[in-house]
């Protein structure tokens, strides 16, 4: 089963609200695919201002699912 199949957009929203919303806006990710978002999140995790950010593969998939469908 693919990561997209187990992604939970509601869990992704909760993660975004708790870990990302202070610095990022949902609208910044409008029009991006879940695959592109997954890649971007994994590239930024643990680097720069995201140094302390650690997410499981399921959390990344859920976050990407939420952002790819949010308006």
Question: Can you put this structure into words, describing what you see?
Answer:
The protein has 71 residues and is mainly alpha-helical. It is 55% helix and 0% strand. It has helices at 3-6, 9-19, 34-44, 57-69. The longest helix is centred in the C-terminal third of the chain and has 13 residues, at 57-69.
The shape is globular
Gap between N and C termini, in Å? 27 Å
Helix count, DSSP H or I runs of 4 or more residues: 4
String of helices and strands: HHHH
Write down the Rg: 11 Å
Secondary-structure-derived class: mainly alpha
Helix content: 40-55%
Strand elements, count: 0
**Residue fraction in strands:** under 5%
Stretches with pLDDT under 50, minimum 5 residues? 1-5
Which whole number gives the mean pLDDT? 89
Task: State the major sheet.
Answer: none
């Amino acid at each position: 089963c693919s990561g997209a199949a187990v992604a939970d957009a509601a869990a992704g929203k909760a993660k975004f609200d708790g870990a990302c919303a202070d610095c990022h806006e949902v609208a910044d990710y409008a029009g991006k695919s879940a695959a592109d978002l997954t890649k971007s999140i994994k590239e930024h995790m643990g680097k720069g201002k995201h140094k302390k950010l650690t997410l499981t593969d399921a959390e990344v998939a859920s976050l990407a699912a939420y952002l790819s469908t949010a308006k």
